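thought: fold this chain, then report.
action: predict
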Amino acid sequence: MKAFLLSMASVLSLHYFSQNNAQAFDWAFNPGANTNTLKALHYTSQGDLLVLASASDSADFGGNTITALPSGNFPTTNYYIGKRNTNGTSQVVLQSRNGAINMFSDFSDFNLDANNNIIVVGATSAGHDFGNGVTLSNKGYIIAKYNSSGTAQWAKMYNFGNPNMTAFTTKPWHIACLPNGDIVAVLKEAARFAYIKLDANGNELLYKVYTITNTGSMSTITSSRNNCYIDNTGAFYLYYNTVDMTTTPKLKLSTVTNSVTTPFDSVSISNTGHPGVSYLLAFRANGSKKYFKGFRGSMIDLAVEAATGNTLLDWVQYGGQNNIPPMNMLSGNTGVFANTFQGIIAVDSLGNYIKKTIETPISQQLKLESILPLGNFRLIGTLKYSNSGNPLTAGTQTYSISSGGVFTWFEFDQNLTPVYFVAAPLYNQNNSLAEDAMSHFGNKVSVGLKWHAATQSTININGFILKANNKNTTFPSRYAAPYNAIGNDIAIAQFDRTLQGTNSITENQNQPLHFSIYPNPAKDALNISLMTETTEATTVKLTNLIGQVILTEQVTSNPFVLKTNTLKSGVYFVTISNTNTHSTQKIVIE
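observation:
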């Protein structure tokens, strides 16, 4: 009987437990394909989550199969948008593939307008058929509008005047929608970018191309990693990082109209030999200059509060660098490169300093990888934490581990002070990476991460045990080298901002409360067997698909019998909980 129970537990993969120093994750899932990538996350106005991702060969989104046809002897990639509804069901809304035709196009990002219409951007090397009679030919960067059901409405192509272009930026677009329905996009390459404004019907309102001249190296023009780069007036904000050893590095912008280049504006900074330089570029809604500023240091991410135009800068400054405003508000600006700042700086819509995160010793500084504004200077930031001898702290929470690492999502309050964090998942090979994509709907926050299946077969997101590539196990045997290599899998998870804890924990408390249920499906009764020893009072709770609590009982024996003869047929969730942890499994009542 024990062996039977263990085998039952192994196939019930929806385990869930929460750490008492963090919010509870509502759910977590993975597409289980080979070489997944997560592009973007956005909530609809109803709280459903849309996920833009890609998969080589095939994947599974909430029970829905996505496939990409092989091309000769190597796999291809399909880009898709899937929807996870608030009731837990899922569907695939649209795909870059069209039936049995291989189309070598990619979708690199998307956003939603006020009516939940989907604006997708990407690139194509051979044209694209979006369905519903909407097609594009030639080669270039594409922007298309679908309705909320995934039916194409219109599409546009931009190629900087070169219909035969052969090279494409991996993630070239920043895409957003204004309250009046206009679509605003920035299309960027290494040394140029275009500002594009379209109305809701796809009519072009503004198209302006800028070229960049700079003497530095390793230069990139970019902006918000979560498309929070524009305010409600249409003003937009970009940044340009470069390495420049000249005494006074200068960034020059020109505009290009009908192949005629016209000087636009420039910004310079006294560098005194420090190599890292970052330029913050703010434009008005008509594409004219709002302000340009240059600093010593590097921008990691940028997020604009749409309602106010206040901008949060994810900033790294190496030493007391005697910067110009607002970076001169950091302490230690003595001209001696001795002090380092890693944190958030808030500026107003004109680039004036407002506030910053607290300055701490270098060993305790939080280097956030991406940020998401919540309004009124509040934000969510992603941090990778590995054992460094310094526990994580936020508010009254602390967290430490002896080995390995975790990804944490910090929330900062209106004073830019960390108030809590979520610490998940535990990983054992240090090969996991947090994805930039984040989104929020009220108190719900969705996040993503990826991990490599070859060195880490599973991850644990607060009790959700996800197995890498488990929906595409034949991939390595169906393709010849080098195309048969094991790739990344991704995970998407949601947590609740309101479920905060106040106690310190250690890794010893990160043990899920395992249990098995049989039979499943059931009719008159469920047998629940606890697989984890516990001396605490334990409760069993049954909820339906929309979260209503059907019954709650105290566990008085092991195994424990739960009567179900009065329940209607359908899908339910059984949750076993005690003081520190709880686990959930799905059941079917016939």
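thought: worth noting. The chain is about 0% helix and 50% strand.
final: tokens above.
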